[in-house]
Amino acid sequence: MQQKQFIIDSNEYMGDFDLNITMNSGQTSQPPWVKEDNRYCELITLSEDKVLVEISQEGLNDELIVNYYSEENLDEEVRQKLFYIFDLDYDITKVYDYIKSEDKLKDIYNFNTGLRLYKAQSPFECIISSICSANNSIKRWTKSISMIRKAYGDSISVNGRKYYQFPLEDVFIKIPDTEDGLKSFGVGYRSTHMLDTTEMILSEENYYEKIKSSSYEDAFRKMLELRGVGSKVADCILLYGFNKRVAYPVDVWINRITNYMYFNGQKTGNDKIMKFGQEKFGEYAGYIQLYLFNYARLSGLTEKLKKQ
DNA sequence: ACCCAGGGTTGGC
DNA sequence: GCCAACCCTGGG
Fold first, then answer.
1. Residue A52: beta bridge partners?
2. How far: A41 CA to C10 C1' (Å)?
3. Among A19, A167, A247, A298, which is most exposed with the fewest C-beta within 10 angstroms?
4. pLDDT value of position A276
5. Which DSSP category does A214 fall into?
6. Which nucleotide lies at the shortest CA–C1' distance from A143?
7. DSSP H/E element including A7
8. Which one of the listed residues A81, A119, A232, A244 is annotated catalytic?
9. What's this model's pTM, rounded to 2 decimal places?
């Protein structure tokens, strides 16, 4: 297998990008890529090939060094996929401008420099991952998804190391819903939701295409039909799996933070917070949600809100 | 050894 | 609409 390399320079995208911050920001579309030395490695599916891709970046806006292993030249396809996954084809300076114009958000940019959406390369993994993240801890969630990949996913060996993908629908559906089956990966009661949802997806023709071409509102309603998918998980899937930027996933933290900043701390239901975020922030809602959460973690606001 | 929370969802009232 | 129950691992 031949190793090929190309560079993505910061002048090829608008705004900032920091790979390390983005990869480790706890976005649950899929686990962070496997880290080896200073490189992040992941199997990527292109239209006709499965390719191991390794990327590294020294720091903010430094050049992105991309290695991949293939007999043919796939520079363009790999580049496009990476631009999609790390949202580099989006002009994020629009988000910066909005944040600067909004009094209450002025501070948050400094805590999020270079952070981008980390989108899922596969809608199916995103859906199952997101269901698995519900009422779970990031640590346990990461472990579960990685174990499922290793046990049931396709793999490729490069330089004596094996890399795994998340299993496809038809493989996943066959995992038994038992203690030594799906539950052995520590997903608990979520196993049934994950399998039921897979069955629903398989039973409908062109499921993903339909979601992709639907409006946000229609797609949201369809998400709620899936087992284990409530409004928070639905918005996560739409944002990270289907690139619908108006989604504003509301978990306990986004609820507390939004309350604190915009509702004077008075108790407000998740659905109301979600609608508020979408109407107030529009196309930027997904990013604001990501930035607010990260800001709260880094600034100490999380600790402050915990006590209330 | 016990207790508790974890980036929610579900089903019952 | 509100509220308990859901599973179970990691951390006090």
1. A43
2. 27
3. A298
4. 95
5. S
6. C9
7. strand A3-8
8. A232
9. 0.96
**A254 nearest nt, CA–C1':** B7
- What's residue A48's pLDDT? 83
Nearest to A287 by CA among A246, A230, A233, A242: A246
Joined together, the tokens standing for residue A47 give 């239209």
Sign of torsion over alpha carbons A294, A295, A299, A304: negative
Q: What are phi and psi of A3, to 5 degrees?
A: -95, 130
With CA of A188 and C1' of each nucleotide, the nearest comes out as C7
What are the CA-CA distances from residue A202 to residues A55, A231, A262 (Å)?
A: 33, 22, 41
Q: What is the pLDDT of residues A93-116, one digit of tens each?
A: 999 999 999 999 999 999 999 999
Cβ proximity of A266 and A1 under 8 Å: no
Q: For A109, list phi and psi in degrees, rounded to 5.
A: -60, -40
- Measured at the CA of A131, the angle between CA A130 and CA A137, to 5 degrees, comes to 75
| Residue appearing with tokens 């705004």 | A15
Is A232 tagged catalytic?
yes
Report d(CA A140, CA A124) in Å as an integer: 20
- Strands (DSSP E) found in A58-154: 64-69
Q: How far is the CA of A82 from the C1' of C7 (A)?
A: 36
Q: How far is CA A134 from CA A28, A188, A249, in A?
A: 10, 11, 12
Can you list the residues of chain A whose pLDDT is less than 70? 307-308
